[in-house]
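Table S2 (continued). Query chain:
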Amino acid sequence: MAEGDVYFWKKFEFPDGGRADKLLIVLNNTDLCDFSNVLLFKTTSKQWRRQSREGCNDGYFFFSRGKELFPMDTWILFTVYEVTFGDLLKTKSDNSIEFKGTLKNKSLAALLDCASKSNDISGHHMDVINCMRQILKQ
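Corresponding output:
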């Protein structure tokens, strides 16, 4: 599992206990940035008061249908989910997640640059995002 990987997670459990099938994007490589957990952004195909303007928007990033790996219009929300690498591997071995592909580095860099402007991301999560931004620029 590496930064930019996209997974379909069956019955992903949200902090409130709700569950839904979700596409999730891996934000970091656990071998980099001195951070052992995996950070994920969730996606949605539900527009709900969001613009359909390609790229960076206030509080989310938008890919139109057919861009990158997304068969539908997709909004990437800047709610960060943190999971341990072990939990992710366990879920993978249970066949609860399916690898869909990897975002191009240019798209991942644009996504992380956009996220770095968000006020919704906590300090240590922002540190990891900024570290990955620097690595992608090399």
